[in-house]
Amino acid sequence: MRLFSINDLNFNEEDFLDNINEYEDIIPIIEELQNFLSYDEIECVGENECCNKTNKNYIVEIQGFIDGNDEFITKEELENNPTRAQGEIMDLFVIRLYKCVDCGKWIIDILE
Ligand SMILES: [Zn+2]
User: Fold this and answer.
1) CA of 101 to the centre of ligand 1 (A)
2) Residues 74, 64: contact at Cβ < 8 Å?
3) What is the pLDDT of residues 74-105, one digit of tens each?
4) Helices marked H in 27-102
5) How many domains does the chain have?
6) What's the sign of the alpha-carbon dihedral 23, 26, 28, 30?
7) How far is the CA of 95 from the centre of ligand 1 (A)?
8) Fewer C-beta within 10 Å: the chain N or C terminus?
9) H runs (alpha helix) in 16-82
10) Is the pTM of this model over 0.85?
11) Domain limits at 7?
12) CA 108 → CA 69, 87, 89, distances in Å?
């Protein structure tokens, strides 16, 4: 089942390498933003453990913050609406997707 697409890349539930239930708060955020996102290609150190065929990954990065109400807001939204952060503590929250260019398996990496 496809969860979301970013440009021509499909992110399917069955290709996700971790327990998707642990990311149930994150998936809707990506779903909502999918049409505004794009990906790059990067080389990682060592071959991807999913298939050991390549060290290349597609990467998608969503930079944002978590506000006092536990709501995610993208860096862009905040820049366009600076008063949104007034009097609030905004914690950095970066969502990264890595998808193997060979087998298509993917993971979510959160930076807090
Ligand atoms: Zn792979």
Assistant:
1) 7
2) yes
3) 999 999 998 888 888 899 999 999 999 999 99
4) 27-33, 75-80
5) 1
6) negative
7) 20
8) N
9) 27-33, 75-80
10) yes
11) 2-111
12) 23, 30, 25
